[in-house]
Amino acid sequence: MVMTAREVDPRVQAFLGGGPKRLLIGGDFVEAASGKTFATHDPATGDRLAEVAEGDAADIDRAVQAARRAFDGGPWPAMTAAERSRLIWRLADLIEERSEVFAQLETLDNGKPLTVARRDDVGGTVEYFRYYAGWPTKIEGATVPVSVADTFAYTLRQPVGVCGQIVPWNYPLMMAAWKVAPALAAGCTVVLKPAEQTPLSAILLGELCLEAGIPPGVVNVVTGYGETAGAALAAHPHVDKVAFTGSSEVGRLILRAASQSNLKKVSLELGGKSPNIVFADADMDAAREGAAAGIFYNMGQDCTAGSRVFVEHGIYDDVAQFIADQAAKLRVGPGFDEATEIGPLVSQEQLDRVLGYIELGPGEGARILSGGGRAEGAELQKGFFVKPTVLANARNDMRVAQEEIFGPVVSVIPFRDVEDVVRQGNDIAYGLGAGIWTKNLAKAHRVASALRAGTVWVNTYGATDAALPFGGFKESGHGREMGFEAIHLYTEVKSVWVNLAES
Ligand code: ADP
Q1: What end-to-end distance do the CA atoms of the chain give, in Å?
Q2: Which of 54, 69, 232, 265 has a 20 to 30 Å separation from 385 between CA atoms?
Q3: pLDDT tens column, 314-373
Q4: What are phi and psi of 190, to 5 degrees?
Q5: Active site includes 269?
Q6: For residue 193, how far is its CA from the centre of ligand 1 (angstroms)?
Q7: Is residue 209 annotated as part of the catalytic site, yes or no?
Q8: 3-class DSSP state of 417
Q9: pTM for this structure?
Q10: Does domain 21-270+477-493 have CATH number 3.40.605.10?
């Protein structure tokens, strides 16, 4: 392993140092059938962090078979709900014990500021598992008064089966948790495929599942590329359900693979281009800060990033300038530096993509108020650092306003009134998140109802909670994660008819 001179926890060093990381299949850590590995890199420096097994279709098949055995005949589905609950809680405790290890792995692999990885990614993951640890004992069916004489009818809610779970690189551990936790609570078994850019925390999560006592084969982790391992998982005929978070483009491929194989259930959490709306009657300090934080959090690599800030006429120049000033003040640097607010983007590919949009904006008539290219400074040239960028005088029909950039780039767009902003806000293929800043309560509720988005934040932006459903309208996805909605995703309802008539 190559490391730069930074304070890396010895447990992280040990995790990274012991030879190529392996796949977790059926409770064993194994090499890929092909013997191939790939490297994962630190986006702040370009340094290689570790070699990781490159799983492909053959490994996915082995993992699905292991998950199938664990589901069809293993101890997991036969366990009492209370036992499953205790094991999920124990997993949460183990993640909490290793918080610092997870946080450092996330920062090394993804680039995000360590302070954020600790608080949000790892802290959020622990809470998420704890929330779902409470669910196994509460998954109920119903008795239903059917209108047929001498009949007793009831429903059972049963686990959907073997679940393929394909997650992205922007919150590697948390996205895995969003999928694994409800699947376990429902009694399913899992094949998890982390993103090739950020495989490390999922491997450690797999280790802790075993340590917690979750039976072998219940959670399998196959690292590898999307076009090979991911595609094989989506197409596998013995997978009952696939859950995916990532780009809308890959979401379409997953749906196609499901429809061309066994019509497995599919849930999708896809892209966004969320409107964050500042009305002139808002608490202006909170609104302007919320508009800036809504786009620059996690370097804008967030599907709910408030990447279209709509500002009411009259306050447009003031708000746009404030966001630009905030952008200029944000401290860009390596995530390991605790003063860093903006880390690197995850990869060269993302850097090229984001810089392409930054170039496109002025060509379409937008004006760069702040940022506008790679971050300066010799230390930052090795990594994928970009300056937070504000595009003013933007229009909703520009490509920079319609396409998901997935970086710290915001289009600031003027609007006239409620009707105008609802029309513009909804004039987009996506429907994941939206923000509204106003002191007028009636207006806030009217606009919240009119916006076609899965989550609307009023006088706040970006919060999520394990208990509250999350997902998208339109091309932002299918289904809802979090809360009981995720239990729905991972269970099938069975209706049982019993004839009570005397023969
Ligand atoms: P991004 O473009 O932001 O990297 P993707 O949607 O490509 O996001 O990736 C999200 C996840 O989907 C990753 O785990 C990736 O490996 C996986 N993936 C990519 N292509 C495919 C595919 N064709 N089939 C299944 N999974 C895929």
Answers
A1: 75
A2: 54
A3: 999 999 999 999 999 999 999 999 999 999 999 999 999 999 999 999 999 999 999 999
A4: -135, 140
A5: yes
A6: 10
A7: no
A8: coil
A9: 0.97
A10: yes
